[in-house]
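Look over this entry.
=====
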Amino acid sequence: GEPIVHHGTVVGRLALQAAPSAGRDLDAAFLASQTENMLFAGLAALGFSLLAAWLLARHLLAPIRDLTRGARQIADGSLATRIQVRSTDELGQLAADFNDMAERLGRVEESRRAWISESSHELRTPLAVLRAEIEALQDGVRMPDAATLARLHKQVLQLAKLVDDLRLTLDREPGGSQIEQQRVAPVAILAETVDQFRERYEAADIRLDSSRLVDGGWWIRGDGGRLTQVFSNLLENSLRYTHAGGQLRIAAAASGQQLALEFDDSAPGPRAAALPRLFERFFRAEPSRSRAFGGSGLGLAICKTLVEAHAGRITAPAS
């Protein structure tokens, strides 16, 4: 600005000022517009975030809720419960594993019910005979002579054997008191057991071929008495169900650290569909015929238990 002087005295000041610029209004309008846009964008982002979080939570919580509900139903005894597999990720795999577990539990429960039913049935027969014999003695129909006492004793022995067999098949991993750990020769034990059965096989007109049962000096650590029980059960089973005029071939062969013992009998053999269940408790390929021979359906199950206790494996392959 310039001073205004009158008679040597500054009476004012002259200044030039630019006119107000329209740019500031534009700047203010732009700032307001950007603020509004950012506000809407923030609200929209917040809304989408909430929606995405809700969808993600639903995706994660739905299978967890299904698992929780299914676990409660399983705990309440509803073993037929299955949950929906919603995805192929880790939660989907967990749901599939849950369904597999439920199916296995169902099979175990079904097996347990069948075991109880079959056990009751097997125990009922000797108990019924004992009851009839005792009631006959009480009513005076029979006298307590040696023959009657012998029949009672036989039924008691049969009942005790059945109880022991049931207990043995329950012990899938028998303890040290049941399985002795000694150095034994399984082929020699089998040969000795075969010799004990020869007369019975000859009487039944069944050829017992043990020419391939050659002992190469193999030995294992185990229980010789239990191995004798396994071989006796197998020989008894073959003797019971092989037709007259047939044969049983027994062979031994070693490969590496494994010893294979093979029992190959002639017709009739189990149906191919029955082979996978042949070593189950109480399973009979032909129930009526097996009961006629007095079998309890536990012999092969005992063989499986004892062989596995010796770290072995027993199978019935299709011929």
In short: The helical segments are 23-75, 90-138, 146-170, 186-203, 224-241, 287-292, 299-309. The two ends are 122 Å apart (CA to CA). DSSP finds seven helices and seven strands in the chain.
